[in-house]
Amino acid sequence: MKVIDLIKSSKSTAFSFEILPPLKGNSIQKVYNVIDKLREFNPKYINITSHHSESIYKTLSDGNLQKVNIRKRPGSVAIASAIQYKYGITAVPHIICKGFTKDETEYALIDLNFLGVYDLLLLRGDIKTLDADQKTNQYHEHATDLQKQVNNFNKGIAIDGSAFEANETPFSYGMACYPEKHEEAPNMESDIFYLKEKVKNGADYLVTQMFFDNEKYYAFVERCRKEGITVPIIPGIKPIVFKNQLTVLPKIFRSDIPEAFACELRKCKNDEEAKEVGVEWCIQQCKDLIAHGVPSLHFYTMMASDSVQKIAKEIY
Q: What EC number(s) would the UniProt record show (predicted)?
């Protein structure tokens, strides 16, 4: 069953979460440990983040530098398949633009189709500056460009324009949205314009960047509805677990932290106290969202699976 159908068929606010692939050298058991911790809350689907390879320069014995591509984490394709077959829970791998060529994306789609994983989350991904020897036309610049490739794949059109037998089960997908505006958008009007394009061209649902002020989410949803965007807009939820996230998260994700929350975090003497404050804020935030009838809550669990477990026990 597609994610959109899982959300719509849920009799109460659906629960889902996102996991981070383990670092190179670690087994998939680390992923299973997180899932086992949260499985009791009946997750409708589990997202798997994707990370591009990185270039480092290794100093050779003669003093020259050699560029080496390294990958710190396994890809989302294999992990999504393992999760889906072990738990019978719909797995949603992230497919991103940055750091992956159009050909690599096509190979991923071929593999996912073969493995029976048909739900995706299409994202631009973290901004990555291409090396001078990399051709920019090999990469998608925007998530809407990636969306076109997936749509063409569903029609049986390869990246080189050749035809093939289309998937018996086409891919369905969600895409990202930003209640507080994408950092590169010149204004909210522009952001909404491209959001409408995403939905018009096939996005089944939207999932938000993390936010801590529900009023901003409600205002964003209202504006989207006025603009004719009718698909579910899923709140992305992140519990704060470290004291320094009071300044780090707004800097990285451009998410405002309400003063009432910030005030309590400033009182914390250590990370353990900040984690407790983060859990309590998130519980109240989620209860308010559920009272307002959101179709689903999607939790970002990186470094926060224990907190998510505590929160879920209070609201599900």
A: 1.5.1.54
Average pLDDT, the chain: 89
Domain count, the chain: 1
Q: What whole-number distance in Å separates Cα of residue 62 and Cα of residue 158?
A: 45
pLDDT at 100: 84
Phi, psi angle pair for 67, to nearest 5°:
-80, 130
Please choose, from the candidates 209, 225, 212, the residue with its C-alpha nearest in 3D space to the C-alpha of residue 286: 212
Could you give the angle at the alpha carbon of 187 between the alpha carbons of 179 and 259, nearest 5°? Answer: 45
- Vertex 195, ends 194 and 198: CA angle to 5°? 90
Nearest CA-CA partner of 14 in 314, 302, 290: 290
What percentage of the chain exceeds 90 in pLDDT?
Answer: 74
Residue 22 pLDDT > 90: no
pTM of the model: 0.90
Residue numbers of the domain that contains 207: 3-315
Q: Give which of 259, 175, 184 is closest to 215, Cα–Cα.
A: 259
Burial label for 110, CB within 10 Å (0-12, 13-18, 19+), is: middle
| Residue 132, pLDDT score | 43
- Cα–Cα distance for residue pair 105/117, rounded to 1 Å: 14
CATH at 39: 3.20.20.220
Calculate mean pLDDT across residues 17-43: 89
C-alpha 26 chain-centroid distance: 22
- Read off the amino acid at residue 21: P
Return d(Cα 209, Cα 195) in angstroms, integer.
Answer: 13
Average pLDDT over residues 257-266: 96
pLDDT for the residue numbered 55: 43
Here the tokens at position 205 are 């649902």
Mean pLDDT, residues 152-180: 95
The pLDDT score that the predictor gives to residue 170 is: 96
The DSSP call for residue 126 is S
Contact status, residue 274 vs residue 243, Cβ threshold 8 Å? yes
Helix (DSSP H) and strand (DSSP E) numbers for the chain: 11, 10
